[in-house]
Specification:
Two copies of one chain form a homodimer. In chain A, 37% of the residues lie in helices and 19% in strands. Chain A contains 14 helices and 13 strands. In chain A, the strands form two sheets. Chain A has an eleven-stranded mixed beta sheet, sandwiched between helices. Chain A has a two-stranded antiparallel ribbon with strand order 1-2. In chain A, helix 5 packs antiparallel against helix 14 and helix 9 crosses helix 12. The longest helix of chain A has 26 residues. At the A-B interface, helix 2, helix 9 and helix 12 of A face helix 2, helix 9 and helix 12 of B.
């Protein structure tokens, strides 16, 4: 039995609201495999490939909001798991990977209802951040990142709406890519935020990520633009800790030498042609759309079933419940305007770079004051929401190190330019 | 009590399979409002606008797979309705319309699990096709089309994966548009085929459709290309009944005179640069993807709950259940290749025209032989699957008449060119 102090971060439209809360959780070790060094597995499995293909010899894990036939999907919530029967089909993305030659090694921990970026699940535990064991792994694809970092599998499939692939990839020092919205089928993935959610891949190496995500994207031999322009999202650099910024500038200098292309700083305001800070992507737009959609998907179920919820999620959900839908609708329009601005600016041939997260992983237990949680969430989501509103593919590259801890360096490209991004990453990173 | 002969049309990969089946249905009048001339209402409502806006003075109906707070959503299935509690939030699209000044007049009939194109629901009844009362209304947005045609509301929101807005719009003689995939939020819409499903609008007049769908699309003042090129999908003309083709050619001649642009015939094979007939969009690609995704969404629930099902849906579902997922995965790749080919060919400034359906509405009761059902489904879906694989916006225009019955004339545009299509429609139609 553990006592836990939680700080809720609101998704409301007036910026983050703050509450703290103390509650007793019956067990923090709901379903742990003792042989898993990353403590990421909810269930160890060995699903053999259904055919041979480009993923022969590789294995993967599956975030626990993605269906595996015959095994209950928990959504990071024991209450959800216990009230929903096991699916009789794999998610389509799981079948795609098995049919391309990969083996599935298990289901891995997700944050409660995948509604968090920290990776501390009070029921299923906190997967170990192998490269910084005293620090959080990040979430909500916490088990995906941890399982890949510790060698449970070469890659993992996760989901990303507000940063849930990119943040744990950044904080655990693995590769992570969320593709353009809706490029990968979500059949068999629990509905979360239908306009925003994406299925993507985390991996130990770029070639593994590249092979796996091209199977899911059904990339074929799609021709792509050649790399012509490298932008640097200046607001994201400014929001980042100085040490992260210095490291990112070092990476940009290397990329410039390698490609012969001089990176050009650009602000969010310049991209959309309006005087708005990068944080508007999150605070004025995406976070509010996400709250509205979450009310429809998970919210309806919670209202009817009153499930047991962890303290952090309980308070976050109080703010979801209290959101005024009609007042919030303006955020939908703003999301669309931001998308238009980003789409017309980031044309094929252009990539835009920035640190994936503004910080290294916070120490475990340090997000339990309102101030620290706000700082982590507000700054991180200001950066992750950019690709969210832009519906962009974004690749987090594990090449930065601050105080011995990993931070990701992100390369994003235009909407539907996923294959160009993968090709450009090879070129930029050598 | 009625006796019904049903013919199942398979969504399997080897083309349509045929079975016929006879079953007793307890009641064909599950929930009918006797004051509704179109027999389309599942529940009459009067939800007042939450704010004033561009839809002031207009009213709408809602297909019964889209949530209205406090009212159970049936999905066209009494078994589904009775086992799912009422949602506590409206679907986001309903809230958008109410906040733009529109009033909601009720929930309308959908085909069982929205998995049909004929509009004959054995539990909720067959909405009346006001312009051809002895004929089917088409489905699955049968109640949406019927309610608009009979004046229950000026417009209706429906959903379309394989033609479920366009077919009833065509057969009932109303306007209907499915937008580009995922342009409108699906939060609060029952998950059906996540890669394919779209929310869209049916309406009595173009100006009503235009206003309503721009609210949902959050179109703003998005600039669009000007109309430069009018293509005619020649395979769709050939598949159509001769009388429909003659009418469509008449419409094209008028459009040519009005715009000064000469329509250019083009085949599906020319568009994608491969020797393939238009029917491949459905038979080799979209239908199979749809079957796989339906297994994940509705199929999982059916397997666990063994609900009462109507005879036609029962047999269609037998074919869904029997589909081999691994063998079918090649269809996912083909969908992506077709999308690429269509996307690079139908550039901004281009529209492509064809009859929405190859036929007028079949007489009620005539789809009860395998031959007639196959003919209707195979030919219709060959044409509707084109915008499906292309993820295109398509507008069905009620300007053709054959034997006194309506048929739609479709104008489609490139992926995400929804606002261009709306502008072009005004120009083309005068």
């Amino acid at each position: 039995m553990i006592i836990r102090i939680a700080v809720a971060y609101s998704m409301g439209e007036d910026g983050l609201k703050q509450n703290s809360h103390q509650e007793t959780i019956v067990s923090a070790q709901f379903c742990r495999d003792p042989s898993d060094p990353s403590a990421s597995l909810v269930e160890r499995l060995s699903l053999m490939p259904s055919a041979s293909g480009p993923l022969d010899g590789l294995s993967f894990t599956v975030k626990d909001n993605i269906d595996i036939a015959g095994h209950r999907t928990s959504y990071g919530s024991p209450a959800w798991r216990d009230s929903h029967p096991a699916p009789n089909q794999n998610a389509l993305c799981v079948d795609q990977l098995l049919a391309a030659g990969a083996r599935c090694n298990g289901k891995v921990v997700a944050d409660e209802f995948t509604y968090s970026l920290d990776g501390e699940n009070p029921f299923f535990g906190t997967p170990v951040n192998a490269k910084a064991p005293d620090r959080i792994p990040g979430g909500s694809s916490s088990g995906s990142a941890a399982s890949v970092a510790s060698g449970v599998a070469e890659f993992s499939i996760g989901t990303d709406s507000g940063g849930s692939i990119r943040v744990p990839a950044s904080l655990c020092g693995v590769w992570g890519m969320r593709p353009s919205v809706h490029r990968i089928s979500e059949a068999g993935v629990l509905p979360f935020m239908p306009s925003v959610s994406t299925v993507g891949v985390l991996a130990d190496r770029l070639d593994h990520l590249d092979k796996a995500i091209r199977v899911l994207l059904r990339s074929g031999k799609r021709p792509t633009a050649s790399l012509q322009r490298i932008l640097v999202l200046s607001d994201a650099m400014e929001i980042s800790d100085e040490a992260v910024r210095i490291e990112a500038n070092g990476a940009l200098a290397q990329i410039s030498r390698r490609t012969g292309i001089e990176p050009e700083p650009i602000s969010f305001g310049q991209i959309i042609g309006r005087d708005m800070p990068l944080s508007a992507c999150n605070e004025k737009a995406l976070r509010i759309l996400q709250t509205l959609e979450f009310q429809n998907t998970v919210g309806n179920w919670i209202e009817t079933n009153a499930p047991q919820m962890g303290p952090a999620f309980s308070m976050a959900y109080e703010n979801v419940r209290g959101s005024d839908r009609i007042a919030a609708l303006a955020s939908l329009d703003l999301c669309e305007r931001f998308f238009e601005g980003i789409q017309s600016f980031i044309t094929p041939g252009t990539v835009i770079c920035f640190p994936t997260t503004p910080v290294i992983a916070p120490l475990k237990g340090t997000l339990n004051t309102a101030e620290s949680a706000l700082d982590f969430y507000d700054r991180t989501m200001a950066m992750t929401a950019f690709s969210g509103v832009g519906r962009l593919p974004e690749l987090s590259v594990p090449i930065l190190t601050v105080d011995g801890c990993p931070v990701g360096f992100s390369i994003a490209a235009g909407h539907y330019q996923d294959e160009f991004l993968l090709n450009a990453a090879q070129e930029v990173l050598g």
